[in-house]
């Protein structure tokens, strides 16, 4: 056997949508509870369960029973008896915190330091829960908005030179932005000044930002702003929204110094270690290295360690890495009939690879793949898997674990699915 249905965990974080994941799974949410993430993988915070006939077993225990067979020989040798990635559906109704993830070297050093200090892993003020880095890629299922990477210091300064910021609290921010240094050093000094504001100063700056946003948006209230507002005004629109969601939080100013991005369905964003970012709104499929290491810088009631964040963050001027996917690869049946296409979202991450497959008919297409574990998630229609005498059909919201040694099968639709896997070879870009 190589095809195994999965039962997955829903995480009920306060920022979650009440409709996104229920719609995908086809379930009721009569209580109106926020359903923020659907987790697929072996992460101890919400491991998937494998359906074996009338019983279930955690995916972690299942893999550990025969890692070479289920993960694939090369993967088990590199990563041990667990999946090195966590696969999610993320549904954000409210903004997530401004955050950054460490590199592997930073995570190892930080974890060792906090272990030496005797800080419990579940202590809310602990920064490093494990020794791993956390690169991530998110592919939009709906329009998806976020912030990532620093804007040019001159552009940031232009906003803080507006008359609404003619207050003493803004002086350290403006001073940081005119320093005769490299842009990365300027942004680091600016961020330090931003995160060093006292509560009274923070409230004053938030009021200034809201006044600026109101003027630039002609005084239109946030509830009348379209999600499809022009990008040139997006930072002001989000200042209004964040003021409502996080009143008095210094993170309300983040749209003035971080780049705004908007993904259409099928587009993805890749976030490397050190990239300061915040997801704002939308539903997407997210794939990341399995880690809990997060350093926060606003839009949160959780612990903020300013000094550690400043040690980890990459303050270089970077625009978000938007991935349209490698060129669509046409899929054909055995009779050479076009049946759909596949798209790969290539990143430099060694732990994961994301692929999207769209099947436009019920003619089967044959798949021959590398000997590496996969999780398939159906996000539309249905998909039938057939191989080695096994047959499984997954519908919208269903997930399937595919063992690493199950390297040949056929697919038929109509349906749309995402495949998460561990690459045997890491590519820097789309293959030729």
Entry summary:
By secondary structure, the protein is α+β, with helices and mostly antiparallel strands. It has helices at 20-25, 59-65, 67-71, 73-79, 104-116, 153-160, 171-177, 183-195, 199-216, 234-245, 306-312, and strands at 3-7, 9-11, 37-40, 49-52, 55-58, 85-92, 98-100, 136-140, 144-150, 258-263, 268-271, 277-289, 295-298, 321-323, 329-332, 338-345, 353-359, 365-368, 374-387, 390-395, 399-402, 408-412, 415-421.
Give a written overview of the molecule.
The protein has helices spanning 20-25, 59-65, 67-71, 73-79, 104-116, 153-160, 171-177, 183-195, 199-216, 234-245, 306-312; strands spanning 3-7, 9-11, 37-40, 49-52, 55-58, 85-92, 98-100, 136-140, 144-150, 258-263, 268-271, 277-289, 295-298, 321-323, 329-332, 338-345, 353-359, 365-368, 374-387, 390-395, 399-402, 408-412, 415-421. By secondary structure, it is an alpha+beta fold. Among the domains are: 151-256 and 295-323, Orthogonal Bundle (Phosphomannose Isomerase, domain 2); 329-421, Jelly Rolls, CATH 2.60.120.10. Strands 1, 4, 5, 15, 16, 17, 18, 19, 20, 21, 22 and 23 form a twelve-stranded antiparallel β-sheet that branches. Helix 7 runs antiparallel to helix 8 (183-195). Residues 223-230 have low confidence and may be disordered.
């Amino acid at each position: 056997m190589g095809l195994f249905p999965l039962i997955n965990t829903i995480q009920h974080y306060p920022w979650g949508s009440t409709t996104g994941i229920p719609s995908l799974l086809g379930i009721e949410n009569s209580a109106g509870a926020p359903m923020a993430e659907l987790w697929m993988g072996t992460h101890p915070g919400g491991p998937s369960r494998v359906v074996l006939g009338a019983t279930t077993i955690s995916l972690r225990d299942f893999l550990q029973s025969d890692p070479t067979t289920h993960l694939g020989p090369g993967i088990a040798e590199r990563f041990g008896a667990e999946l090195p990635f966590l696969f999610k559906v993320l549904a954000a109704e409210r903004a997530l915190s401004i955050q950054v993830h460490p590199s592997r070297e930073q995570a190892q050093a930080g974890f060792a330091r906090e272990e030496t200090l005797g800080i419990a892993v579940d202590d809310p003020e602990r920064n490093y829960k494990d020794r791993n880095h956390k690169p991530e890629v998110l592919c939009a299922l709906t329009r998806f908005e976020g912030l990532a990477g620093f804007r040019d210091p001159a552009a940031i300064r232009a906003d803080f030179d507006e008359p609404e910021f003619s207050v003493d609290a803004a002086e350290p921010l403006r001073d940081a932005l005119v320093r005769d240094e490299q842009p990365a050093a300027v942004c680091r000094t600016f961020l330090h000044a931003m995160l060093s504001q006292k509560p009274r100063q923070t409230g004053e700056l938030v009021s200034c930002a809201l006044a600026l946003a109101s003027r630039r948006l002609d005084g239109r209230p946030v509830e009348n702003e379209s999600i499809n507002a022009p990008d040139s005004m997006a930072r002001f629109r989000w200042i209004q929204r964040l003021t409502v969601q996080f009143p008095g939080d210094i993170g309300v100013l983040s749209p003035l110094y971080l780049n705004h991005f908007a993904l259409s369905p099928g587009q993805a964003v890749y976030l490397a270690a050190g990239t300061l970012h915040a997801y704002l709104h939308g539903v997407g499929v997210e794939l990341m290295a399995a880690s809990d290491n997060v350093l926060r810088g606003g839009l949160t009631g959780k612990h903020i360690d300013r000094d550690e964040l400043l040690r980890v963050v990459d303050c270089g001027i970077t625009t978000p890495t938007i991935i349209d996917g490698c060129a669509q690869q046409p899929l054909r049946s055995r009779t050479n009939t076009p049946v759909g296409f596949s798209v790969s979202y290539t990143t430099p991450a060694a732990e994961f690879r994301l692929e999207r497959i769209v099947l436009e008919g019920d003619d089967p297409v044959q798949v021959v793949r590398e000997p590496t574990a996969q999780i398939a998630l159906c996000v539309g229609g249905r998909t039938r898997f057939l191989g080695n005498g096994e047959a499984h059909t997954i519908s919208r919201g269903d997930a399937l674990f595919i063992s690493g040694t199950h390297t040949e099968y056929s697919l038929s639709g109509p349906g749309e699915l995402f495949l998460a896997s561990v690459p045997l070879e890491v590519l820097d870009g789309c293959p030729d």
